[in-house]
Amino acid sequence: MAMLFDPGALDSLSEDAISDILHDWAHFCSLTTSLLSLSQDGPHSQLGPTVASLCNRGLAFLLQDHFLLSLEEAFKRSAVKKFWQQFDSYFDASAIEKAKFHVQESWPEEILTKSLEQICSEKRSQENCLLLLIEALKSYEEERNTDHSQLISRYQLMVSSVLLTTLPWDFPDVLRIYFKKKLEELNSMMADGDNDELDINTNNFPNDACYSYMDTSMYECNGLVMQIGRVVSDLRSLGFTSMAEDAYSSAIFLLLKAKVNELAGDDYRVPVLWSLKKWIRAVPLQFLHDLLGYLGDSIEGEKDSPSVKSPLASQPSSVPGIGIPSEALVRWQLRLEYFAYETLQDLRIGKLFEIIVDYPDSSPAIEDLKRCLEYTGQHSKLVDSFISSLKYRLLTAGASTNDILHQYVSTIKALRTIDPAGVFLEAVGEPIRDYLRGRKDTIKCIVTMLTDGTGGNSGSSGNAGDSLLEELNRDAENQDGAEFEEDGGTDEKQAWLNAERWEPDPVEADPLKGSRNRRKIDILELMVGIIGSKDQLVNEYRVMLAEKLLNKSDYDIDSEIRTLELLKIHFGESSMQKCEIMLNDLIDSKRTNANIKATLGKSVATGPEQGEIDVSLDILDATILSSNFWPPIQEEELNIPSSVDQLLSDYGKRFHEIKAPRKLMWKKNLGTVKLELQFEDRSMQFTVSPVHAAIIMQFQEKPSWNSKSLAAEIGMPADALNRRIAFWISKGVLTESAGAGPDDPFFTIVDSMSDFNKNGLASEGCQLMEEESERSVASVEEQLIKEMTVFEKFILGLLTNYGTATLDKIHNTLKMFCTSEPTYDKSLHQLQSFLSDLISEEKLEMRDGSYSLKK
Q1: Nucleotide-binding among the record's keywords (predicted)?
Q2: pTM beyond 0.85
């Protein structure tokens, strides 16, 4: 052994000894070459004495190195080169040609299995040769009990090194394609079997890769698993363990991703997670269980050891069809389930805008998303993605304010399910609220949506025709009931259970808001938060209510009373007092109207002037307003027919007698009139405003009027008349022709359809324009301008003294000094709107956030 570590020891040897060593070494090299050439003749028996002789000379390690080097050269020459040549046609192909390989049914299965069989056969042959050397070494060192297993390890390392150093770039792709096709085939077999739960016996598989099949219904699937197992086993023996695992892992995850997309798709009305977890157990997890069993890995957990339970799955540790899984199988289950949750989560987040549009029909998709986020904790991804979708798809000039508000309400409801704490709703809702504050019709749309029968109830639970306000009231009652059950009437045991379920607020939560405030998400409060003040919302509702009541043709106000009662719950009775008086006016009007008709009708029937009255009292229903509590009424001069005027006068006198000293001041331009127009060949019925009725009734006296004469007769400006008379032209009742001047057209009644067809029909859009442009009550904006006009001189004087002032400074100064009547009580937003009007009138200008006088 001294010669191995001290080459200088050769100097002490005689020439005969050196000659014997060289002879033995040459003989060993010859035997090695003969052995590797697979010669089955006698030289194998001479290997032992030659090895023993060289070992006696201290050359044991040298001959081992030589033998391994010979094996390496032979392996490269006879196995590795041939192995890679099998794939040259794919490696040398272009990207388009490689795609053609992918669609071939038998590629790469045939070529891969054949190549692996050949190279593994060559490897086994060399391992047999290495065993002969090990036997020879053991016979020499049998007294020393030397362990030669490291020689096998060195050979395995040599095989892996040779293959990896010559590995083509595209070989991992070949493996991924192979496993992908095989797993798709396995999935198809399972689909053909209706995805029944697998019932495989959990007996241990033998370590010598002898695979047992216990379930005859799974014979074909087990045969496919055995084919895959042989390929994986061969790859492992060649040192491709990590590459093989990466390849079939990639194929499993691709198949799982495709399954998630197949189950989820664009149908948000069906829950997906349960079916997905069932499929994971039935296909990939069962495949891995069988594959690990075939490869001889542990497939069952130790019975005496505590089982490992997936924190991601709400299932017991024992998996159906598998039993208690091994640690490796549990790790796979964790990976598969997390990937499934994350993939489904990303899919639902990407379609969250559409999901919320379909809410509450899409509630199953929201529930799935909630569970996914609970496992992955990637709530920030939802917030960032959804805010981006809102800015790109909703918060644009092309979207109507009504659509934005409906989407906002649906967003609140959906995110309340995902995040009951409301933390992420705060982040998502802020861009919507900021955008809506910049729209002038936001308040009007909010009030309409709250009070209209179709406002916020499309597709939601509850009675058809319920307003959003009624729906929100039901939600508030449900939340209050749940809160009462949680906080009150619980015994000590329940209190402890509630304490155990307590969770701290997320780190993203606003510390200024407590958990109890955040737990109950008040949608109405969030809607009011857009406006900034409940007074503005109440004022807008008051205007809309007045418009609706003034245009009623009867006294049916049941729905308005119900809405008012709900608003009183949220805003208090004092805020809604004026609205309540308005509704009481209609109730009193109904009673007063019936009383006046009963008494006045008898006197009229017996009076001497009965024959002079052309209009019956039965057709008149008056709405008597307490003007101090109603919004400013739009007034317009109007001359009505004398018969109608006389009827109103009689009605007013009788009212004064009953309600003395109160008197009626008729708003002749307000209300509705039901007319029936009779022509030569037809009759037509209309419900119109008093102005329209006054216009058409003038044509009873004569069939044609010019614009100016008709306007003078009715008592209204000619331009207003031309705008209003377009309604009758659009209905084919009147025709327009050129008059004496461009501003004085001529209007003629259409007595028969032949005249109507001859003169043609005006655009029907005139009615819509008319309906939208004329209002009975001044809008909130008009009232604001009128109220703020009082402070205009003060603002101009302030800017004259100070030169420039910010919005906050003007607002605070007005609040400080304008304390007597009229008191300044406007919000910052209302002041900003008024200053914008002054800028449009070129009285003010704004630079760098400060206002100044226009120069």
Answers
A1: no
A2: no
